UniProtKB/TrEMBL annotation:
Membrane topology: Multi-pass membrane protein
Superkingdom: Bacteria
Species of provenance: Flavobacterium defluvii
UniProt GO cellular component terms: cell outer membrane
Family: Belongs to the TonB-dependent receptor family.
InterPro entries: Beta-barrel_TonB, Beta-barrel_TonB_sf, CarboxyPept-like_regulatory, Plug_dom, Plug_dom_sf, TonB-dep_rcpt-like
Annotated TonB-dependent receptor-like beta-barrel domain residues: 413-844
Keyword Signal listed: yes
Residue intervals of the TonB-dependent receptor plug domain: 117-239
Protein name, per record: Iron complex outermembrane recepter protein
UniProt main location, coarse: membrane
Transmembrane segments: none
Keyword list, A-Z: Cell outer membrane, Membrane, Signal, TonB box, Transmembrane, Transmembrane beta strand, Transport
Amino acid sequence: MRKKLKLIITLVLTLSSSLFFAQNHEISGTITTETGIPLEFAAILVKGTQTTATSDALGKFKISAVTNSPTLIVSLFGYQTKEIVAKDHFVDVQLILENNNLDEIVVVGNRNPKKSKLETAVPVDVVNLAKIRNTTPQTTTNDILTYLIPSFNSNRQSSADGTEHIDPASLRGLGPDQVLVLINGKRRHTTSLVNYQNTVGNGSVGTDLSAIPASAIKRIEVLRDGAAAQYGSDAIAGVINLVLKDNTGLEANATYGSTSRNDGQTTNLNLNYGTKIGNKGGFINLSAEFNDRQKTNRSQNHNLIIFDQSAEGNFFAYDFADDPAQSRQIDDNLLAQNGLKRDDFNFQIGDAKIQNIQGFFNASIPLNEQIEFYASGGVSHRKGTGYGFRRLPSETESVVTSIFPFGFQPELNSVVTDLSSSFGFKFKFGEWKLDLSNTIGENKFVYDVSNTNNFSLGDASPTEFKAGNHSFLQNTVNADISRLYKDIFSGLNVAFGAEYRYEKYKIVPGEEASYIDGGAQSFPGFSPLNQVNEDRNSVGVYADVEADITDKFLVGIAGRYEDYTDFGNTINGKLSLRYKILNNLFVRGAISSGFRAPSLHQQYFNNIATDVVDGELLNSGIFRNDSDVAKQLGIPKLKEETSRNYSFGVVFSPTKNLHITADYYHIRIDNRIILTGNLGNDAYGDPVPELRNLFAQYGAQTGRFFTNAINTTTDGLDVVIDYDLNAGRGKLNLSLLYNYNNNQVDNQLNNIPAIFVGQEDVYYGPQERSLIESNTPKHKGTFAVNYSIDKWNFLLRNTYFGEVIRDGFPFGGIQRHNGKVVTDLTIAYKITPRVQFALGANNLFDVFPDKQIYENSYYGVFKYAPVQMGTTGAYYFGRMSFSL
């Protein structure tokens, strides 16, 4: 009887609770990525009803249902929609990213947390580096972007002092300092290096993207539009935002490769590890990377040397052969008998030797439901060896023949240390969000010159010199406040904030022997007269409002005020619009003003270095803008560059898997800062006595200055087509990327000093003009096919680098380098689900730029110019990847 009564009571209670649960079934849960990262703004719908909820910043939600075990539909733009049956009061849902990365939510370009790259009013490219880096032939961030972003260009320089060690990069053909780099949305510091060796980006100061290990980067967002009103100085061409990895687990990767000429060997080893912290979505992700790249040599050595043997059996002379037919065959046995080798006579022209050791971290720790702590940062330690121009024993004012009887080719050795740290707190006050952060970074470049001499010291000259260093430090304090009003219009996002930035630039002299009386050949060290210890600070306030006026019409307005202690203040604004003609077709456009403050480097960098001036090796000085010599010549004080940006684009998605974007842009820059030509000769290459005498007082024969000399106009078009489709059992992705870019310098120069009127071709001549107008391709395009099936993945990519024109004025000629196609091929196979092996090639068919005409090649030494795809040639690699 007791057993029956107990059973009846149990049944009654169970039925009652079930009826109650069916009437009031409250479900809570979390929405995260596959790696456990919380997802905000995910929509949760009870299937068959109109009951909805939205996840919060920690991915949490609560929702009520009137049925037992309801089906929940969870969706978030950029992720695959998921249905789940809620059999309990708590559910944990993991969403998977859509295959097409065009749908990814982007951080850069707008402060609306719900916008994908296809919904923004300005073009944004997304490179999902975490997905592609195991199959792409390139290993550094600069090289990867060159082949994936048509309007981005970067190639290695040769015999270009420090520029050999930090590759200059450009977006839309503008200067390296006209694109702003962010990490996790926070401003990244620039390098301490000024590019002054008449390379692309001449006179500019860029950001070293390769100081951030590719193994630490989750994705790269490239905003191709002026954004100074949103982010401040430098964002004239656009913004590159590196989003660091937040995944858990272990990844290891090893790559080895070599060129078809058995040089330029590369070894890349990297490790990435991430783990959760606590149970609220916290994580820490760590990356370590080692990269070693050996030198390449692309000089025409076998036609360069004439040498002879005296009666005593010693080599006594050699020189260049203007006519290759006059060259004598080098006898390797004879060289060996005298303890010599070909490299003692040959030129080393090619990529510098670089070794890089890097570490990076990214972390986020929610302290409670309202406060999150985050931090990131890292270190990059780079050692490099580049090569200057060879000195011949016949150069009797350069070579101490008792030390170097056969002359020498100087080596420039560098140690580049890059440190960065960013930390902050995110607060949530109801619907308002506050982000407080501090970001600090420093770049230090130390020079050491070897295999050279200081001629003035004679037999007592060292052959290795500590030539000094320069460094740049930047600290940024930022406060950003934002709120999304879901019920105003069809969504209104409001953001505003303030920023304080401190910058410090230093030049430290080298040892006395490196600079005294002409200094070390190739790279005289910094002297006490070059010493710099300058700083400045700036304050900025900004506001950014973006409203979906209707479901079809988006309007964005941004404004920024900045005040600098060294040149004044500026106000800039931006208006952006997007209108949906159809659900799969809309137009977008933007109008903005922008600015770039003159860098501390441009204001204070100064040195004496050996340069090729009118075909002759001379000591050329770069003098401070506020120096006595600048004042004597009437060089005006630097001021900010100003810009006006216009863009118009179309986005069309005929199907869910096919996306087409086309965007036109027009950029006008006034008072652009350039580095003048070598002043001291006239337009015909003849010395100007009064200038030579003036510069001689400062230990130089010619001089150069930074000045706001030019105005430029840039017109261009970007086209991106991306198509995903099923091909049998496999998946196929086709992408077509194209950029047209035309830069023009106004004929009239700004504020040219009276002494140089009539000498405009020297002050800012055809060579300097061609670096801006025609040294980067006007046309560049990429067609890529990526096919994956079962355990296999195939990548075939053809990149067209269009024609470039180089002007060697005044001692060279004008040369057109025809457009070239570079083919990349990678075949990858998953040995196990966690182990993948890949073989491939960059520049499979060993394509080079056109050979230089003789008058541009420095007597035949420079066989190729470092244009378009560079001078490496075919590069073959093998790679092993492991994940856990």
